[in-house]
Amino acid sequence: MKVLELFAGVGGFRVGLENADENFFETKWANQWEPSRKSQDAFEVYDYHFPNSENINESISAISDNMLASMDADMIVGGFPCQDYSVARSKKDEQGIEGKKGVLFWDIIRATRIIKPKYLILENVDRLLKAPSKQRGRDFAVMLTAFNNLGYSVEWRVINAAEYGRSQRRRRVYFFVYRNDLKFAKKIDKKFESINNVNNVVDEAKYDEYIFFDGLFASQFPVNTEIVKKRRAYYELDDDIVAISDNFTGTVWNTGIMRHGKYYTIETAPNYSGKRLTLGDILQNEKDVDEKYYISDPEKLKKFQYLRGPKRIERTSSDGFSYIFSEGGMSPYDNENLPGRTMLTSEGSVNRSTHLLFRDNRYRLITPIEAERLQDFPDDWTSKKKLSTGKVTAVSDRMRLFFMGNALVTDIVKEIGTFIKEID
User: Do 259 and 293 fall into the same domain?
Assistant: First the structure.
């Protein structure tokens, strides 16, 4: 299966798919571009590992229609930029699908329209399902409508990797998009022939059967068959994207399927009984950890303790309004008996979100190798990069941690790839 990897980063989708079956999935094209950086480190790491594919280091918007038309990809994958939906942005600043990076979604639609792949796998932060705050779900509904207008169906699920055995509590929404003329899609259509009865009442049982048993996510990431708090919704999308943007009033829960312009969504809870990894499981032996990762500066440790502690601070907004900022306390260091917390791009800095370990009566940060393990990458995956001159050089620890904060849990992609291989 020929694959085009967009927003490739350091190759998370490719690693996951090749772990599913490196002889079946062949990533022939990859695009990675970071507009805010002069140095293209992520691309250089990708190019170091995968020199035999066509790796494009320019904005996706600069890739011409003709170049896309030359790519006969069976599948497009990508974790498209999520800054506009990130919880790090304040509500007044969020821009949703019209934001500076949110608009790059339309290049995914452009590539889909031109290439007409059989499948797409996409990933984003789970807040996408509730964006923007003043019209929750609108951005996601616009995306569903865009795919529907191109003749595709969409299945989605919010997956917390730790709830399926991985070592990090990382919640992301995954899209499985498939073309409606495929044998797989027609098989679903046959099951859904009587989706509505003569009174146009939704046959919820058939949707539930798909979500609980038949779909990709049901197969690879099982859930309880009881709907959480009876949260379910059904919505018929307008064909007009502008009308959806202006008038959408639906609800989107963490699981759902959109077929032929109608979507059904429910709130599900995971049902996993396999082995569960913890933060402690992926940590290196102390004898292998460089002294530079230990915190010896008492002022730095004091700063961490302050950041992780409870706060109640009076602040003044830009318009002169006074308010109280309050923040609950965290444990003084991370619990190794639990999966790691969500890793952010600020990992390793003096930050509340940074993992802080206490081992052998000493405090330390996680190492780049441990960060790679939290995302199910091979050890030292990000340690080297290949410059445009062909020279191979080392990557700084700061950039390695930044890459992993931006990456995805590759084992989740592996499971998705296993299902796609089976149906194809």
Answer: no
pTM of the complete model? 0.93
Residue 250 lies in a domain: yes
Residue 375 has a CB neighbour count (10 Å cut-off) of 28
Model pLDDT for residues 72-98, shown as the tens digit of each residue: 999 999 999 865 544 445 556 666 666
Residues 6+ apart with CB under 8 A from 120: 75, 76, 77, 108, 112, 152, 175, 176, 177, 178
Domain of residue 378: give its range: 279-382
Q: CA 289 to CA 1: how far, in whole Å?
A: 40
Q: Does residue 157 sit in the same domain as residue 286?
A: no
Do residues 123 and 172 touch, judged by C-beta distance below 8 A?
yes
Q: Which of 10, 42, 82, 216 is catalytic?
A: 82
Selection from 147, 101, 154, 149 nearest residue 125 by Cα:
101
Side-chain-side CA neighbours of residue 206 (13 Å): 16
Residue 138 has which token pair? 């609108």
CA distances from 141 to 150, 180, 250, 413 (A): 14, 18, 8, 24
User: Do residues 179 and 312 both lie within one domain?
Assistant: no
User: Does the residue 395 lie in any domain?
Assistant: no
Same domain? For 264 and 195 the reply is yes
Residues with pLDDT less than 70, the chain: 82-102, 194-201
Q: Is-catalytic flag, 82?
A: yes
pLDDT for res 386: 97
Question: Of 306, 303, 290, 309, which Cα lies nearest the Cα of 365?
Answer: 290
Confidence at residue 197, expressed as pLDDT on a 0 to 100 scale:
47
Spatial contact of 37 and 377, defined as CB atoms under 8 Å apart: no
pLDDT of residue 101: 56
